[in-house]
């Protein structure tokens, strides 16, 4: 199960907090309203990126085109969460009921990386600042390669056209919103690690630029222009040596990044993970993502319960949901890693008979004691549970074009501002810290151990839901590290079982298992259910404000509902 809770909660706390501002700002009002559109639709974590995606759709661009535009624009306006220095996963559904494709742009470890990458000479874990804010944590960025692969298959507009909105934002400047200001202030040491980053985001006093300030990033505009004009070769060929040398210089131990690591990077098409939930089909990413499997398992385990009758105000529902997480994440920790390096029993993990056997462990009247991973069909023997720290900074966007093609894309640099290393105006990821620090435990190999060229396991869960006629009815995903599959599964239940709008479902509170401890969302209705949950066996409950951020599109009779997480809206304003 997920461990190291105290450290992770301390880190997550810095990304939360709520401030009250006037309601006059258009960004805040736009982010909180429920919008219905008859043609294409975009839901992202920043209204400027959303507007850029909508403009591309209006020009006749495909959902894939718009997704690329949003990803690149978020590199400019939401650097704390994602960008071209990171990677992502993209799930695409054809509007005519045809192909469902998933693309893997997850970062890779240098070929020279070893299992002891994050350990000192005594086998002890290196200090966090050494592991994270150095070249040790940086994987080969995959987002541009992912964008190029998806565009080649599904793009309609020219590649260069997709970079124009982001280039304008970087050159002309954008206004600092509350969310970015707070992220910079709370992560000052990492966000301002380099002189170049400080020159963009911080004032001469060393503090984050005030809310409402104009932020310009000339180096990023230049880098994006280069990629727009030259194509992905700008990152993976002509500038590969410079990127590799920069990362290598910042790498104190273990295998250093090389030019060959970058030029050899390939975004991959993967098999989707699909499972039935009631009369719907839920599809997401397979390994190295754990998100698709976790969502399928949680929903499958809960299908035998009448969740609609229980409803979201019943503690028994939240108990059942918490138990389904515990069961699913027990398997996740043991079995899921990069399937190019380890055998992952995906079919066995989502096999209905196996899921039913795991569901039988869930008791509506009591919590499971002595929970252990299951043994799905095809499971490899002698695996160990690793010691991965929780993931953090991520973003998600959902897009449907006028032809009904849908894209669910989750993008990340891992922690807020990634490694803190700043190259070409963008932050480089710290994704390699998603690997287990320890390669073996008690002589057993860890599936998610560091290996050269390997992709670390991820919680990202871009998801598309189909009705019984094969029509796309929900395009959804989330940010928030290990909470991502939980947010997605919770919201799907909200829409399917509780009959909620997507906006209402995204606003449902969070409850999540971290080992023996359960975290409930501070200030939510769950705090009032704590006594009932404790009576059901959840004796270690902590109220907390985790950083949640989900986005969704839901098909309605009148068109597409555009939904954004209501927790994020107050932080999108850029004037007080």
* Average pLDDT for all residues: 91
Q: List low-confidence stretches.
A: 1-33
Tally the helices. 22
| Beta-strand content estimate | 15-25%
Characterize the structure shown:
The chain has 576 residues and is an alpha+beta fold. The chain is built from 22 helices and 22 strands. It has a seven-stranded antiparallel β-sheet. The N terminus is likely disordered.
Properties at a glance:
576 residues; alpha+beta; 7-stranded antiparallel beta sheet
Task: Report a brief summary of the structure.
The chain is an alpha+beta fold and 576 residues long.
Outline the fold blueprint:
Elements: H1 5-13, H2 26-32, E1 35-37, E2 41-43, H3 47-58, H4 63-77, E3 87-93, E4 100-105, H5 128-132, H6 143-154, H7 164-172, E5 174-175, H8 178-186, H9 188-191, H10 195-201, E6 214-215, H11 218-230, H12 233-238, H13 240-249, H14 259-263, E7 268-270, E8 273-277, E9 280-284, H15 291-302, H16 307-310, H17 315-335, H18 346-349, H19 352-359, E10 394-400, E11 406-412, E12 422-423, E13 426-427, E14 440-441, E15 444-445, E16 463-466, E17 472-479, H20 484-496, H21 502-506, E18 511-514, E19 517-521, H22 530-535, E20 541-544, E21 549-556, E22 559-564
Parallel strand pairs: 19-20
Antiparallel strand pairs: 1-22, 2-10, 3-4, 3-11, 4-7, 5-6, 8-9, 9-16, 10-11, 12-13, 14-15, 16-17, 17-21, 18-19, 21-22
Helix pairs in contact: 3-4, 4-6, 4-7, 7-11, 15-17, 15-19, 15-20
